[in-house]
Amino acid sequence: MVKKELILEGEVCPNCAIKIEDEVRRLGNVSSASLNVMKGTMVLELEDGFDQGTVDATREIINRHEPNVKVHEEESKQNKPEEKDPLLKEKLTLGGALVIFAAGFLFENSPAGLPLFLAAYILSGYPVLYRAVRNITRGDIFDENFLMTIATVGAFAIGEYPEGAAVMIFYQIGELFQDIAVMSSRRSITSLLKIRPDYAVLFSDGEERRVDPKACVPGDIIVIRPGEKVPLDSTIIEGSTSVDTRVMTGESMPRDLNPGDALLSGFVNISGLVKARVDKTFGESSVSKILRIVQEASLNKAKTEQFITKFARIYTPIVVGLATALAVIPPLVTGDTFSVWLYRALIFLVISCPCALVISIPLGFFGGIGASSRNGILVKGGNFLEALNEVGTVVFDKTGTLTEGVFEVTEVVTDMDRHEFMGLAALAESSSPHPIAKSVVDAYNGQIDRSMIREAKEIPGMGVSLTTTDGDVYLAGNSRLVSVEGESNQGTRIHVSKNGRHIGTIILSDRLKANAKETIAHLKKRGIATVMLTGDIRENAMSAASDLGIDEVHYQLMPEDKLRILEEKLGTGRKLIFAGDGINDTPVLARADIGVAMGAMGSDAAIEAADVVVMDDDPMKIATSMDIAAYTRTIVYQNIAFALGVKALVMLLGALGEATMWQAVFADVGVAFLAILNSMRIMRKDFRRNS
């Protein structure tokens, strides 16, 4: 299965998006299709590999529903310079229609009145009328274009010329508001995508030259000057600087870096010129992962979004049926004038337009995902954002999640020469990405000769195994890997053996993260249970849990033990979060209801398996993500209640003859406008916590 993203240039109406998705999903090679109105993209999952015929068929479906939308396959089309005002034509058209409409009132009682109102109606409503007629000829009747066409043509038919023109003009003004809101939301995400570096300065043979970041490979040397973006994940080898990590982590404080420190792509160099060694290709760099996560977030829709989509499919046929009944049945029963009840039915149709719901709900979730991104939290879809409101338990890994994961060697116990022993231990640990292994390597002050390594492998949950070119086998790990008599329970310990014989022990200590205790306190205030799973020994685990206030602790666990305990806690009614950072946590992250990867220092596998990625490893961001989710849900529910409540009230008043066409159109446009403004509040709210 492969994914194919199409770039849509031009605005797509939400109801059309639903129909396009449905038709595309029925194509033979398509496993799933998701059209993101906010981003202007269509993502296809193709079952049998890339198929140009399916892509062409998708383009034809899009253009059939939205003839003015251009479909591009190339990503570069999305990065072209943005027009100064893409909606200028619509604004000028509506402005002209309003002027003609106002002139119609000046000549309302003269022969010029009807032509002026009709001209304003056609000028503003031509796109709606065209789409309605086109869809009717295809048998696709029930949508907002049909509602507006029937309502306005009916108004003209019964002599209500000003109302007919007003309904169309103000409906189009409402559509313009929606387009402006979508573009604003799109820009907020596009601003995040601007972290993509344009070039890298490659240093080779004593010369510097600009190249595409994709042309660099691990081991290349790049130069980063003040003001430039870091193009690739790399390690500083020369120079010192401060970097702005805001786009990646959400933190405004600069970070000071020196030789040996890691640079993540997307950081901005502030002060000093540095040379760095490339660690990863562009496709595997942090910036690429972030872009991929953000761009694919729209594929995972929240249940509320899915409900509104289904609701819109059945809502329009129902209200058309009710309006027809309202126009026909009462005159037959009561003998009243048909035109009176037809007018009421037209009011019913005007207010029933579902646009406010169809656009404001996805806009709300899109805003929540954007707000999360600005705070250094990558949420992989509206479904996960919504699920964060239902959390009952948070399960934490200890090392690197609640603790710094930066271990310090406090004691070395060996009968060998200390430097020689540490050299052997560092050689064994040099092949492991684990924080403890890195601490051992850092504690050794000598040169590690990796040419001595014949084979090295990590043994999950226990340590590492090393075979040298001399045939010696070294094991470095916990007591489950290296058997030790009289094992002490003080500190984190690494035992080292050579050819099955224990040759020494390294004792290390770890520190709690600055915000770890406050994070647990915030979760408890929410009534959320906290659990810690760790492979560490009992004393270390209990000490950390006591300091933090953790409710439940499990220690000396293998990866399969963590998975077993987590599965025992799943399915209790409320959602369960697992937060971890290591490669050993990948199965647990994938199995949890919501997997949270502490991403900046976490493994690639953990980031891929997680549903939420915290870029700066701050556990407080878990609480922040819940704040954003709660605020997003509040906004979405407000929009649903407000839109349905106002529409139901005006529908009732219209049916009883207590509302006019003017009130209906202003209520419809007003509801859409206020719901959109309400959704956009999410993107402007400050969710930062002062811990």
Number of helices: 21
* Number of structurally distinct domains: 5
| Biggest sheet overview | 7 strands, mixed
Structural class: alpha+beta
User: Which residue ranges are poorly predicted, with pLDDT under 50 across at least 5 consecutive positions?
Assistant: 76-81
Number of strands: 26
Rg estimate, integer Å: 31 Å
Beta fraction:
15-25%
- What is the overall shape? elongated
- State the distance separating the first and last CA atoms: 45 Å
Mean of the pLDDT scores?
Answer: 83
Strand order, biggest sheet? 14-26-25-24-15-22-23
- In helices, the fraction of residues equals 40-55%
Protein name: Cd(2+)-exporting ATPase
Organism: Youngiibacter multivorans
Transmembrane segments: 113-133, 311-329, 341-366, 635-655, 661-680
EC number: 7.2.2.21
